[in-house]
UniProtKB/TrEMBL annotation:
Belongs to the apolipoprotein O/MICOS complex subunit Mic27 family. One of its GO terms (cellular component) is MICOS complex. This is MICOS complex subunit. Component of the MICOS complex, a large protein complex of the mitochondrial inner membrane that plays crucial roles in the maintenance of crista junctions, inner membrane architecture, and formation of contact sites to the outer membrane. It is found in: Mitochondrion inner membrane; Mitochondrion membrane. It comes from Ailuropoda melanoleuca. Keywords: Membrane, Mitochondrion, Mitochondrion inner membrane, Transmembrane, Transmembrane helix. Signal peptide: none annotated. The chain crosses the membrane at residues 110-128. One of its GO terms (biological process) is cristae formation. Pfam families: ApoO (PF09769). Its main location: mitochondrion. InterPro entries: MIC26/MIC27 (IPR019166), MIC26/MIC27_animal (IPR033182). Component of the mitochondrial contact site and cristae organizing system (MICOS) complex.
Amino acid sequence: MFKVIQRSVGPASLSLLTFKVYASPKKDSPHKASVKVNELSLYSVPEGQSKYVEETRTPLEESISHLRRYCEPYTSWCQEVYSQTKPRMQSLVQWGLGSYEYLQNAPPGFFPRLGVIGFAGIVGLLLARGSKIKKLVYPPGFMGLAASLYYPQQAIVFVQVSGEKLYDWGLRGYIVVEDLWKENFQKIEYTLII
């Protein structure tokens, strides 16, 4: 056979370096004929036909498969809910970060105004003792009144928009009541005629 002589010697970390290798025949070995590629066992094709046989499932694999089939509707529901709530949560996080940034760099006089508006809400809550309707009306009313003193332009815009919405809701309610009244009144007339 051949004797291999390595010309470079180094640690294992340098094994990626290139180096030259010289091969020389042994002096005492007789000269043999070369071997063809298809005669090598590495490249030979095995005799006979191969056939695929599927392995039987173990009880553990069966139980895991059954568990996966059982849980699949729930996992798909969770994925759907996650995909629907993810954008909302991201917008909520962005809003929170924006609010935090605004509060860190608040304009001068913002916190005293905020304190007065909050105090007006607490006063409204204290004056609304006893009635549930008063508890729903007084605190937001007092807070709105205090906020309108500090922010009159925004209060005017808010009143205009909310007034239009209240008018629209009132009109819709009137139409619904009118339709219900007509349906019931016609039924009463129909039963009186018969």
